[in-house]
Amino acid sequence: xxxxxxxxxxxxxxxxxxxxxxxxxxxxxxxxxxxxxxxxxxxxxxxxxxxxxxxxxxxxxxxxxxxxxxxxxxxxxxxxxxxxxxxxxxxxxxxxxxxxxxxxxx
Amino acid sequence: xxxxxxxxxxxxxxxxxxxxxxxxxxxxxxxxxxxxxxxxxxxxxxxxxxxxxxxxxxxxxxxxxxxxxxxxxxxxxxxxxxxxxxxxxxxxxxxxxxxxxxxxxxxxxxxxxxxxxxxxxxxxxxxxxxxxxxxxxxxxxxxxxxxxxxxxxxxxxxx
Lengths: 106, 159
What we know:
The structure holds 2 protein chains of 2 kinds.
Chain A: E1 4-7, E2 11-12, E3 17-24, E4 46-53, E5 56-63, E6 72-78, E7 83-91, E8 96-105
Parallel strand pairs in A: 2-8
Antiparallel strand pairs in A: 1-3, 3-6, 4-5, 4-7, 7-8
Chain B: H1 4-26, H2 31-47, E1 52-54, E2 57-60, E3 64-67, E4 71-77, E5 87-94, E6 101-107, E7 114-120, E8 126-134, E9 139-150
Parallel strand pairs in B: 1-9, 3-9
Antiparallel strand pairs in B: 2-4, 4-7, 5-6, 5-8, 8-9
């Protein structure tokens, strides 16, 4: 089961700005909802998303309960060199998902 | 001897009073004030004493939202995004949610463009604010007024 989906170009020209779209499968339980018996459902969200381009962090997001379920994060980066982009989602209850995507820069 | 009419009037009054007391017990009457204070506090934590100027930031949200559980949001900041002059962070806040923080984005010159898109939750109609922190230390902001018909976190008391 793919727990995260990444959409980005597989190749780009040097210096080109590429758009990256990421989607993680997660319920993002806010911690403000109650069950039918009135008990609070504990918070369970993704806290942080990072993107590293060949080991250098280029983009980071801190997420709060106000982010919708299955968080979509779209951003841009400059295609500097061929290599891999590493994406990491971390959150409550030990949630951790890592994905990589490779890019060829000409 | 109480007539039937008098009894009904009294009974209705008692029922209304009970209902009002129960509602009071569940809903904090200062909810709006408390959330506003939390919002100001969250803003102050990011900005400190610096001046926040309007402009350069463009926050896009649909003006009328059917479903507050997933509201598309996109934010873009005018910036050359060079090593010397770039956007360091973008913070999104909202006044009416139980927590004012929505999302904080940290980026740099390698982003190429200062823009991002995501989907957020909104509990009630109100203002959504984006604040961008630039590499020279200045803060710029933009706000959007939105109307929410179906709220996220319905279980919490709304004002």
